Amino acid sequence: SDIVSIDIESTHINPNYAKIVGISVSAEKDTGYYIPFVFPGMDSDDKYTLSSSEILDILKPILESDEVSKCGQNIKYDMLIFLRYGITLKGILFDTMIAEHILHPEKNSYKLENLSVEYLGYRMQPIEELIGEGKDQQTMDLVPLDKVMFYACEDADVTLQLTQILKKSIDETSMSRAFYDIEIPLISALAQIEYNGVFIDKEELSKLHVDVSERLERLKGEVFGMSGREFNINSPKQLSEILFDELELKEIKKRSTAVNVLEVLKNHHPLPGKILDYRHLSKLNSTYINALPDHINVNTGRVHTSLNQTIVATGRLSSTSPNFQNIPIRTKLGKEIRKAFKGQEGYHILSADYSQVELRIMAHFSKEPELVDAFNDNVDVHRRTAALVYGVSEEDVSDDQRRTAKVVNFGIMYGAGPFRMSQELGISMSEAKGLIGTYFNTYPGIRIYIDTLLDNAREDGFVETLFGRRRMAYNLNSDNMNIQKAEERALVNMPIQGTAAELIKLAMINIQHKILKNSLDSRMILQVHDELLFEIPENEIDIMVELVKFEMENAIKLDVPLTVEYNFGKSWYDAH
Description:
Layout: E1 4-10, E2 20-26, E3 33-36, H1 52-63, E4 70-72, H2 75-84, E5 92-95, H3 96-103, H4 112-120, H5 128-131, H6 145-171, H7 176-196, E6 199-200, H8 202-227, H9 236-246, H10 259-265, H11 270-289, E7 306-308, E8 318-320, H12 332-337, E9 341-342, E10 347-354, H13 357-366, H14 369-376, H15 381-390, H16 399-413, H17 418-425, H18 429-442, H19 444-460, E11 462-464, E12 470-472, H20 481-517, E13 523-528, E14 531-537, H21 541-553, E15 564-569
Parallel strand pairs: 1-4, 4-5
Antiparallel strand pairs: 1-2, 2-3, 6-9, 7-8, 10-14, 10-15, 11-12, 13-14
């Protein structure tokens, strides 16, 4: 067959715990085959004499063959289960969930049953009819064979039919490069990262919990001291009474106590700043310090996050269960949490991080000579920006001027206007407007690039990354000015953030390929924003540093050099 659709029926939605109930395949429209592993009454049915291991021995050469093309819906799930059964699924040609996300990144669901209705006009059997729902829900191995058989074959068949339709749509657009050269090969790399998992030191987290609990109590006392009485800090209603009624601070956004409001209010009274500190500590305590031990897999002793390709519209990866992307890097506690991420006995953690990658991509897209020269000359780009903006020599740039230049450099890429800049820098709106104007006078190529990008988006209806991933410009001509401005900001940022995502994905694909090719014991264990994390044995440190640095810096050729900063140590904290 040209292509075979494969789908595993299992006992659990988490592939790290799931056992195979059966495998369905389809190679022709309206046809499917089901290979049962386990079902009620199996022991007394003499028609089914093959054991699970015998079935997998027969299927293994096909599943591990690059010559047999496979497709699936979220095939990474199946790949992870196969890895646990000692099989490396190869020959992946198509994934319907990822294809639909590339074609329609604005959707919030890519479920197979929804795609079936939309593209085939066919309503699939709901899984609830088989396993029930809520507290009465059972596992698939308890469902009668004939019912599982139809459901499983339907999955495989619908996926095959959708593949034929979506493949045509992908192949007709500029997005085929992003799909076939990046997203599809990336599935194998991500599956391996998830399978590897991360070792978390529970004792380190326990010590941190004690420390943070004490700090929270101290903060609570300071908050009550400033407000003049005790109240529920987590209650927006009670907090707003303290801030706006008792302390008589100026109301913003109808008595809101949101983070952006408190950021403004802290310039007028110390209490909002203390509240922000309390919330930050409290969130990290509940989200990571207290929660991470619950994510440790009982079988492996490691945490296996899920890296998702179909959540962020720009193409950035996200992680769930747990979300490692949100551990802050700039705060002390965010750094402290990294102490718990360790290499197991005999292994070190290697961290490799792109330096100012989005600014480098902006330099490439805009062709702004001053910015391109700064990166090619390997100078401190924020210092040079400050020198140009303030009209002083680089040696005379103050720390405050450099910080301001850094905020503006990155803010412009996110389409930040005077209001956002004034908040970030604690300056007036008129000062922020003047600063942005001076910036664009300093780097006129960036202004031209942004204006041209938005003009083209109005004409073409989309913007795109270096590899052709698109974001449609649906709201660029909206009558609502707030919606229009928000759309402009998103459109300015998307090609830069999306290309940065493509860059690190290509690096991950190439690094994983080299690790396998050279039969290394090192393993890639995490991707967070512009950073890759590895667990490496001591005797492979030099090899991996050279390999990782080369592949990351050469994944894409830009008009400016890509640079990677790296370090290694016993923990993620030490490697930073």
